[in-house]
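User: Please run a holo structure prediction.
Assistant: Happy to. Please share the sequence and the ligand.
User: Here you go; the ligand is pyridoxal-5'-phosphate.
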Amino acid sequence: MKDSKLGTNTICTHVGEIKDEQFKGAVSPIYMSTSYEFLDVDLKRYPRYFNTPNQTHLAQKIAALEHTEAALIFSSGMAALSHMFLAFLKSGDHIVLQNTIYGGTLNFVKEEFSKLNIQYTFTDGYEVKDFKNAIQPNTKLIHIETPSNPLLTVTDIKGVASLAKKHNILTSIDNTFASPINQTPMDFGVDIVMHSATKYLGGHSDISAGAIASSQKHIDTIWNTSKNFGGNLSDQTVWLLERSMKTLGLRVKAQTKNALKMAKWLNKQSFVDKVYYPGLKTHPQYKLAKSQMKGFGAMLSFELTKEFESLDFQKKLKLIKSSMSLAGVESTLLSPALTSHSLLTEAERKKTGISDRLIRFSVGIEDIADLKQDILQAVTSK
Ligand SMILES: *Cc1c(COP(=O)(O)O)cnc(C)c1O
């Protein structure tokens, strides 16, 4: 089954499943072969060619969810992202990136692009005009990430995509935070969608994987680069990812619903100074978020009031785990100042609005009363 007009949960459950012709089992078999017969077949299958049965079938599910023609599965989000960049950028080219992007992406750009003579500009802000100002004659790609980490700023996907089209520039988006359940950027004119499948697509904090979804033409271009670099995902893990994605719609909807409730509740608490969540009407880009997201996502941030110290607060939590990653079914949180943004100076953090009391919260599927109770006991216990 391939039809992307199917409902989201049906796509999650069925699209790209491999029929078990031999035993009629209910789920896709795993094909672990790294060697396939080449006689009388058109397709030369090999894991690093990204075309083993499990890889190609799972790619159909991701493409259907992202409303694209094709997709590729990688061993990590960074493998997906780096191959995508290197497929479209060569020496002398220029890329525009949003000023707040995932730390790993930032490191890749800073450490690798200079070696390759690829120029880059980070925008000053999030407005379409900020992207426009950063464009140069040799700009080949604009890369965005919305909602952003950790302050959940929203970038105008359609605005940036149409600006880029006017200048004959490609656009790529890191859609990890929203997931295809809450945001399908292809509908707003973006060319390439990228995911760290380690996050929502996997959803159980036990798989490292990445994905890219795009037109067949762009996927072919990326494939040409990727087959040289490697970075394919083991078929055993591909199978696990397929298994996880069957519940993607259910999980993300439940997490998103919980996040909205938590954001509204936190917003009313005396121990909280500020809540950052695109689903709050007080969020400066609430309307924009509403126009391009189906749900506001399950990531939020909040700032504790001055009486609290973020590490102390986190140590007192009993249910919610302090954890570096995000998007699992279990709620986790972290302090950006101590983790993802610890390499910035205090002045840089201040400038970007990341205070020492800011907490980034990845909301899970637990019962909302238990999450509230855990936070309450942490702020009241001595
Ligand atoms: C985690 C993450 C990545 C990188 O993915 P890995 O699977 O860790 O390589 C990229 N972008 C965002 C937004 C992420 O959260």
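The two ends are 57 Å apart (CA to CA).
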